[in-house]
Amino acid sequence: MSIAEGEEAPELLFSILRRGERDPIGPFSEADLLKLFNDGQVVHEDLVYYEGIGEWKPIHEVFEVQEQISHFVDDGQDTQKVGIAFREVSNVVGAGESIYYIAVQARAGLLSKTKQCVIITDRHLFLMTDKRVGYELEAHPWKSVTNTLMRDEGRGLGTFSILLGGEKRTDVCHIPLKQVQRLFQVSQEMKEGVEL
Fold first, then answer.
1. What are the tens digits of pLDDT across the range 58-108?
2. Which positions ≥6 away from 68 have C-beta within 8 Å?
3. Which of 111, 122, 163, 196 is 20 to 30 Å from the Cα of 44, by its Cα?
């Protein structure tokens, strides 16, 4: 069965067979599975099956992504948002482009109910914004990023600012300060890499 242009591929549903049990559980969406994994209800060695895989396989063989996501949540990020941001950016980055850091707003702004994520790769700085249906990604190649700034808002939160081409400034407020500091550090390293 082929997918017509403009149609979305159906979401994969996963069944889980926990070690030592006879009956599988599920089906689960990828987000459900990530939550089960993060809550400790399933582990790397449990088996997973989905249509098209052919046979039951250990989760760690199928979901290398979880390994990659886990190192982005060291600074208290919302794991589910990090998983979504990772998936969205992974779908658009070029071959060989690596994601280095993902920060998530602690709360939305006064006028906006949507949260933003800042994602840093070795080639781009991405802003991901929740939309009513899906997510919007804004990509900025490092060459177009003039500078990045950070500001302490107090109460453990900060603002990360991006200067583009010396004329446009974008602020992402209400990010936990530890994440803002890490964003600033990683973004400065990426900028230095572009300038060399």
1. 877 776 555 566 666 677 787 778 888 888 888 888 888 888 899 999 866
2. 86, 99
3. 122
Q: What's the token pair of residue 175?
A: 């990010």
Distance CA 119, CA 140 (A): 10
Q: Report the 3 state secondary structure along the chain.
A: CCCCCCCCCCCCCEEEECCCCCCCEEEECHHHHHHHHHCCCCCCCCEEECCCCCCCEEHHHHCHHHHHHHCCCCCCCCHHHHHHHHHHHHCCCCCCCCEEEEEECCCCCCCCCCCEEEEEECCEEEEEEECCCCEEEEEEEHHHEEEEEEEEEECCEEEEEEEECCCEEEEEEEEEHHHHHHHHHHHHHHHHHHHC
* 94/92 Cα distance (integer angstroms): 7
Written as one letter, the residue type at 31 is A
- The CATH 2.30.29.30 portion of the chain extends over 75-195
pLDDT single digits (tens) 115-172: 889 999 999 999 999 887 888 999 999 999 999 999 999 999 999 999 998 788 999 9
Sheet containing strand 124-130, edge to edge, reads 99-104, 116-121, 124-130, 135-141
Total residue count of the chain as it appears in this document: 196
16/121 Cα distance (integer angstroms):
32
